[in-house]
Amino acid sequence: MLTIDNLNVFYGAIHALKGISLEVKEGEIVTLIGANGAGKSTTLRTISGLLKPKEGSIKFEGNDIGGMAAQNVVKLGISQVPEGRRIFANMTVMENLELGAFIRSDKAGIAQDLDMVFGRFPRLAERRSQLAGTLSGGEQQMLAMGRALMSRPRMMLLDEPSMGLAPLLIREIFNIIVDINSTGTTVLLVEQNANMALSIAHRAYVMETGRITLSGDAKELAASEDVRKAYLGG
Length: 234
What we know:
This protein has ten helices and ten strands. The chain has about 230 residues and is of the alpha/beta class. It has one domain: Rossmann fold (3-Layer(aba) Sandwich), CATH 3.40.50. Strands 6-7-8-3-9-10 form a six-stranded mixed sheet, with helices on both faces. It starts with a strand and ends with a helix.
């Protein structure tokens, strides 16, 4: 579904991604794990059109999307849940969700998807008229995920969904990710909590300083001594 080949990305003079290659098959949850600054978020931002690659290709369902404008990437079926949620704090929950459907004009389908989001996130239904900035961290994460679902993505990019959340909420968010995947949405997940990420993913890539150093079945990587020492607390 997604194929990245020899991707090189720079921030000014800084070589952030150094020839990475990876693939995501339809229906998978694939996770990128690694330390801060490894290039995980840069990878997602380049896929979603927020950064332009210097070299290499990104293909989604056969379309070359490297350097494509972000709104056109969304139209093709990729939506991103950004690091730090990035919800619109001065707008209501409902307005945030409606903005998630900005590329759509099928009113009946949008209404149906709003019902689906409220069914999946009952707390958002209770707070639909509330300003998004007044929600708790966990509720804001749910809103960011709900907003991304409103574009009917075939692939969802999730950037650090557990950041700043209490352990109970982290478990809830990860259960929701599995549920979203089970209904047909392919997921590419960037996550500092490597234990949780590997527990739900089918496959994983380990990134270090802009390069992919390991890849394979998520459960096999979780059992690897090197990965355990480096990322899973021994």
